[in-house]
Amino acid sequence: MGRVTVFTLGGTISARGGDAARMTGQEVLAGLGAPEDVVLRDFRRVPSSTLSFEDLAALADEVREAVAGGSGVVVVQGTDTLEETAFLLDLLCTTEQPIAVTGAMRRPDLPGADGPANLAAALAVAADPACRNLGVLVVLADEIHAARLARKTHTTSLATFASPGAGPLGTVVEGRPRILLRPAVPAALRPLTLDPSVRVALVTLSLGDRGELLDAVDDRFQGLVVAAFGGGHAPAPLVEPLAALARRIPVVLASRTGGGATLTDTYRSPGSEHDLLHHGLIPAGPLDPAKARILLHTLVSSGAAGPSGYDRPRITAAFAHLNGSGLA
User: Are residues 10 and 60 in the same domain?
Assistant: First the structure.
């Protein structure tokens, strides 16, 4: 078993009751009997809803430093934005070392608190050589999920994290990881960066939508993700406003359903996926809107968009890389 560096960021696993007080990283680890080769970095003490891109850019820098030194990594944070942190680290931290992200659904002072078990499982994953080359992993409720697939699916369930359409990569049984599946295509695309000053909007379409929120996507934003209906559909009157935006900034078409990939050629009526893609939108494939926003943010940060126009083929290829890769 290898050395593990633990980064604690706060969240429910460290909450002192229902107020803003948070335990230290040392207090979170207390009682687990963590081995001596666990290195603790008390990184932040905040709810995950408060984490910023500045926080995550700094976290990615420190995680890269830790894995470069041969250490596995555990990131401990709140579950509200855990899937976004995990996917972002998957894009920014290319490494063979295991990186596990975990948290808790119940506070330490409540009956059946799940934090200690989740943290113990994540430590086991991060220390196990069998968990290398899997990308960043989400570890809760003794299940091991790929970061790009994992989603929080319930507000209170201890088994809230799932991988729609795929399932977990493995489980933790009696304190030991058992890997059942391996991603056929790694999430890593190329060296990507995160510029906290980049702004990417996320707009969810709804019944009777007239596009007022699209009007607010002005020069403050360098990219847009549209969470559209079904397989990637929008009201016909919104096609031209979306096309106008797509001529200026990258506009990614995702599905608000949260499961399955966006379509490309099943429907051809005005506002269909075929129509929107023909007008310059970029298909998100299987990525849900929140993860599509994370990927687009890193691509824009890495120079895929700029005042002289954006590299639509490159952005399209990046999303296509993760589309339909399946598991093997």
Answer: yes
